[in-house]
Structures are given as structure tokens and as C-alpha cells.
Amino acid sequence: MAAISGITSHLSFTVLRKLLSLPSMLTTHFVRSTSSQPDLQAIRDELEKFQGGSVDLEMDDQSGIAIMMLNNPKRLNSLTGKMMVDMANHITALEKWSLGKGLVLVGASGNFCSGGDLTFVRKALHYGEEMAAFQHDTLTRLLNLPLVSVALLQGHTLGGGAELSTACDFRVMSSSARLGFVQIKMGLTTGWGATTRLVHLFGRQKALGLLTSAKVFSAEEAEKEGLVDHVLSYALQPEEELSVCKNWLASNYCGYDADLTQAVKSSVVHCDLSGDLIESLRNERRVFGQFWGGSAQRVALEAKIKHK
Ligand SMILES: CC[C@H](C(=O)O)C(=O)SCCNC(=O)CCNC(=O)[C@H](O)C(C)(C)COP(=O)(O)OP(=O)(O)OC[C@H]1O[C@@H](n2cnc3c(N)ncnc32)[C@H](O)[C@@H]1OP(=O)(O)O
């Protein structure tokens, strides 16, 4: 959304926005359908019946970085209903993790995720909008976690797997991996919110191209298109790539106190969601006031840091 300066422009924008009743691009709360409010608890109970695989979470208080692993390797980590519920539960735990700074979303056995588990998909053809409602809520919460998140794309990242990758702040890709939004080839549009996130991430034209072409990108092509933030060296083995990705996250984006890292991410999310510059600046001032004169600032001043 183009930057708007000045109070008057802002007021006219706010009025225009209300007149056009433009929906905010992303919301902190699950986007409620006009027809009814999905009962997420009932959907959770139903999805849980579709067993297979798991999503596992390791939270390392020492480093402040958690690893969330999609664990259905015989089926290339495609997601069953039970795995969707596992992921939602882990995100609830991460929302409360006071020592958290970062999250790596990875698939087991050197493969990210090849989308919805087609056995689950075939059994749940009556349950599409409910599944989508649950996944929209989960992936919006994932994207808005007060942590810096990165998806490690190895092997195949297809369909819903590609959608999962858009619900992280960054994407790191293995040099031999492939990434594609193939839903249109499956007779579908996106079911887990990626259309909204792709337009927000890359703009309308690029989002439209990704979704209508169903192109499957190599790592080199994905990097050239700006779809991923870093491509790993060819020399690495799959098991080495997770450790390299965790170090990439730690050294680039999780080098400072957890409370500061969480405050910065939360302010970025607040601005992104509010679509109201005055409100966002008000929130930013409130957060700034929490740290000004605090211990971290006093230690930094004492250290006479030179930012060379
Ligand atoms: C909202 C979600 C969205 C939707 O529902 O609309 C979707 O994500 S739909 C699913 C989109 N994904 C796919 O269509 C991927 C289908 N699979 C493939 O294209 C290939 O498996 C590929 C390219 C990922 C890998 O091919 P390769 O030849 O290297 O391996 P295999 O095909 O032999 O796969 C190994 C093993 O994994 C099983 N598998 C792979 N993907 C899925 C999946 N999505 N669901 C369930 N099982 C999957 C595959 O069947 C093989 O198992 P096997 O027992 O040997 O048959």
C-alpha cells in the first residue's frame, strides 16, 4: 500500500477506505465469512479424525529458536487433518513463548511439504471450506507470531506446501528444491490463504502469474524471481541444511534480546494489519516508551558501541 504522508492525506485515505469499505489486507483475527462464523473447535475435532503423520515442535530456550517439523515423510510431509491440528496447537504454544526469537518450519527427511495429503483430500471433499477456515486461522497466527520465522524449502514444496511457505517471514531454499503453486492444475484455487498473502508479498501481477501458471520453480529460478530470500550451497547434505538455516536465522535476525525482537515483530505486524498510519505510529510510540531508559539501552550506552 503506497506510503501516505501527512495527516490530511491520512484522513482522506481513512474516509476513502471506509467509503470503499476496503477490507484490511490481513487481520489479526480469523477473517469471518459473511454467511457464518466457523466453529473452529468443531472443525478441529473433525480434522483430528483424519490421522497420519505429525507436526513436532522443539523450543530451545537457550537460543530462542524453535524448530517445527512436518513429519509425514513417506508421503513427502503432505498434511493430514491431524497434522493441521498439531500445527495449530504448536502455534498457540509459540504465541506464549517469552524466550522466543525465531522459528524454522521444516519438513522431515529433506523434503518440505507436497501439499494436502491426497488420501485426506479425497476423504474430506465434503469439508473444504471448513478445512480452509481452520488453516486460514492457523496460518494467519503463524505469520503474526512475535518471532522471526523462516521456511526451509527442501525437496518438494507444492500446492498447500507452497502456501505454508508464504506464512513465514522468510524462505530459504535448498539448491535442488522445487517450489510451485499447483492448485489450478488440481482443479482448485488456494485453500490455505496463499492468494491473499502472495498479493501482499509480491503484488497483484506476480501473484496472479504464480497462481495461473502453476509453474514449478527451481531454486535458481525462485531466487531470480524473488520468491525466496536465500539459496543454500549445493555442497550441503539435507541434514546439514537445517543447521545452516537455523544459523542463518540466528545470525541475521535473532541476535538480540527476545523481548526486543518480539517487540519489533509485533510492531511490524500491527502496522501491516492496521492499515492506519496514525494508529500504527501511536502503537510504535507506545512500544518505544517501553524500552527508552530501560536496562538494554543503559547497557548499550555504557558500552560506547561503534557500529562499524
Ligand atoms: C489446500 C491444499 C491443496 C489442495 O488440497 O488443494 C493441495 O496441496 S493438493 C496436493 C498438491 N500436491 C500434489 O498434488 C503433489 C502430488 N505428488 C507429486 O506430484 C509427486 O509425488 C512429487 C512431484 C511431489 C514427487 O514425485 P516423486 O516421483 O519424486 O515421488 P512419488 O510421487 O513416488 O512420491 C513419494 C511418495 O509420496 C506420496 N505423496 C507425494 N505427494 C503426496 C501428497 N500430496 N499426498 C499424499 N501422498 C503423497 C506418493 O504417493 C508416494 O507414496 P507411494 O506410497 O509410493 O505412492
From TrEMBL:
A GO CC annotation given for this chain: cytosol
Enzymatic reactions: (2R)-ethylmalonyl-CoA + H(+) = butanoyl-CoA + CO2; (S)-methylmalonyl-CoA + H(+) = propanoyl-CoA + CO2; (2S)-ethylmalonyl-CoA + H(+) = butanoyl-CoA + CO2
Single annotated GO MF: methyl/ethyl malonyl-CoA decarboxylase activity
GO biological process, one term: fatty acid beta-oxidation
Keywords recorded for this protein, A-Z: Cytoplasm, Lyase
Chief site of localization: cytoplasm
UniProt xrefs under InterPro entries: ClpP/crotonase-like_dom_sf (IPR029045), Enoyl-CoA_hyd/isom_CS (IPR018376), Enoyl-CoA_hydra/iso (IPR001753)
Keyword check for 4Fe-4S: no
E.C. number: 4.1.1.94
Subcellular location(s) of the protein: Cytoplasm, Cytosol
Function summary: Decarboxylates ethylmalonyl-CoA, a potentially toxic metabolite, to form butyryl-CoA, suggesting it might be involved in metabolite proofreading. Acts preferentially on (S)-ethylmalonyl-CoA but also has some activity on the (R)-isomer. Also has methylmalonyl-CoA decarboxylase activity at lower level.
Similarity field: Belongs to the enoyl-CoA hydratase/isomerase family.
Descriptive protein name: Ethylmalonyl-CoA decarboxylase
Originating species: Elysia crispata
